[in-house]
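dude i think i finally got it to work??
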Amino acid sequence: MHLFKNTDKCQALFKNVHTNPADILCKKSLKTFSSFIKLESFKLATDCRVIIEKSYKLENKPKKDVDMQIYVCVKHVPDTAVNIKVTGKDSFDESVDFVINPYDEYAIEQAVQIREKEGGEVIIVTVGKEAALKTVRSALAVGGDRGIFVKTDAHFLDSTLVSQAIKKVIEDDGTPDMIFTGKQSVDAEGMQVHYRLAAGFDMPIASDVAAFSMSDGKVTVEREVGGGTREVIEMSLPCVVAATKGLNEPRYANIPSIMKAKKKKVAQFDIADMGLDSGSDGAELNELRPFPDKGKAKMIEGTPAEMAEELVKLLKDEAKAL
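look at this
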């Protein structure tokens, strides 16, 4: 414990001992430099008390000095243009090209547009195998400010576990004003995580969002409900928005942005160390099966009556549709 008789010496302690911001509380005045993260209290004299910040890593709780914190959940998925080869009961050839989940690209772009207009920061959150770090960097190259990466040993995880992991790292990181996701991933197509996140944070949610606007702390979206029909929803912040194709035009990364992305901060965690448990509500992948070969088209010739007869025969005997 350090004892000082006056404020000057209190200020000296701040200047000489600790270079980070601190709060200086005096009997007749309050001079606030900044206080965030974990604080360690030093009792000085009766007329002065100095609270000095304790050193704390960004991975746990960064300084919130921005207007908005927008989190974007991004998944590392195989490119839809490649041929996926099943190599085992629950595994596939992962040497193929992986990309940002296509629907998540619209989520990233919308978050970046909001930041460009309103200020704040865009934080990319990804849960996946070690290779998924590449997708985090790709998302940072198109506008993300920093990333959070939760490493796993499996590609396919239960949506309950994934949403728990995302919720925990977001809560430990800051206070979300908005959470963006894609409406689904193109590999598992579970369409569960954004709903579970909304339930976990007790936030309103809109999925399949194809139009977005924000004003006076409220979000207005148009969501596709099928048959060319759109539903208009107004939500207060904070909220969860799951994007679909047509919401915007995702930007491409250029060389300078790719180089800058390599230097952006990415906090990394291991899901095994997070103490999560999906419990009895979890789902487990039993088996992967290759999509059956559709085969070649079969041409039917003859008179209309003959072709109709042959078609009925094929549908009954080969396609087993009748």
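The radius of gyration is 27 Å.
im so relieved honestly
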